[in-house]
Amino acid sequence: MSLDPFLGAGRTTASSAASSSSTPSLVGHRGCAGQYPENTVAAVTAAATHVDAVEVDVRLCGTGEPVVFHDETLDRVTDGSGRVDEVPLGRLGELDVHGTDASIPSLAELLSAVSSLPTDLPVNVELKTSAVASAAVDVRAEYEVDVIYSSFHDDALRELRRADPDAPLAVLCGRDPDAGLDAAAAFDAPAIHPSMALVLETAVVRRAHDRGLAVNAWTASTAADAGRLADAGVDGVIADRWDVLDQGSEPDA
Ligand code: G3P
Ligand code: MG
Fold it and tell me: Which amino acid residue places its CA nearest to atom 10 of ligand 1?
C-alpha cells in the first residue's frame, strides 16, 4: 500500500511540481458524496475503483468509538436527530444516511471494508475533534490500510502526534496559508490540504512546493473546479465526484 496519491509521488523536484502538467491524484471526498451516501461503507466501496484514495470524517460517538460522520448532529444527514457524541454506536447503526439503506459506520467497520477490497485504497481520515485522535490511531492499528490523517484543528494534530509520532498527516487550511504552512512545519506534516479558494487566490501551491510539501485541495464539485485546481499545480484533487478528472488522457505532444 502507498500514500502516493496524497504525497505527490512522481514529483521530481519541488519546483518542477509547481509547473507540472500531469494529472493530479483524485481523492473521493466523503467517499464521493456527490454520487453516494456520504461517509458510508457503500460510498467508499462504490468509489474505490474510480479514485486513487478516499477522504472520510471521524468523530467520537456516545459510547466512545470513532464513527465516520461529518456533522456534530445527525439531523442533516440521517433520519435521526441530536448530537453524535451523545448517541450510542448501536443506535447510529440503525439510522439511514440520506434516505438510503446505508448507515453510519464505525471507523473500524470502514477500515475493515477497505482492507477487504481487491485493490489498495489509501484513506484520508479527517479528525473532526481532538478527542477522536488517539482512538482513531488505536483503530487504525488493527487494519492493513494506508491512512493519512488531517485536521483543521491544531489540538487534534497535537493529540495525533502524541498518539503516533510517525503517522502521516496533512494540515487543513481554509483561509490562512501562513497558518497552514507554519502548522505543517510544527507537526512535521508532509502535505497541506488547502481550500480551493486558497489555491486559486494565493500562492499557497508554490509556497508549499518550495517547502517540499504535497498539496491536495478541496473540494471540487465539477470538472471545471478540478481543471482549475489541476492548472494551479496541485498534487491531489479532493472531489465530490469521481468523473471530474480525465485521468486516462495524456497531454498532447
Ligand atoms: O478534507 C477536506 C474536506 O473534507 C474538509 O472539509 O467540511 O468537507 O470536512 P469538510
Ligand atoms: Mg472532511
Answer: 70
Does the residue 93 lie in any domain? no
Instruction: Give me the residues near ligand 2 (ion), CB cutoff below 5 Å.
Output: 57, 126
What are the Cα distances from residue 35, in Å, to 29, 44, 231?
10, 11, 24
154 within domain boundaries:
yes
Is the predicted pLDDT of residue 22 greater than 50, yes or no? yes
pLDDT at residue 250 is higher than 80:
no
Structural domain range at position 155: 4-58+119-239
Mutate which of 219, 229, 234, 237 for ligand 1? The one with the most ligand atoms within 8 Å of its CB, which is 219
What total number of domains does the chain contain? 1
- Can you give the pTM of this predicted structure? 0.94
- Tens digit of each residue's pLDDT (9 = 90 or more) over 90-113: 999 999 999 999 999 999 999 999
CATH code of residue 228: 3.20.20.190
Q: How far apart are CA 229 and CA 219, in angstroms?
A: 10
- The Cα 64–Cα 180 span in angstroms is 29
Q: Has residue 107 been placed in a domain?
A: no
Torsion of Cα atoms, 64 then 69 then 71 then 75, to 10°: -100
* Residue 57 Cα to ligand 2 middle (Å): 5
Beta carbon of 240 within 6 Å of any ligand 1 atom: no
In a domain, 78, yes or no: no
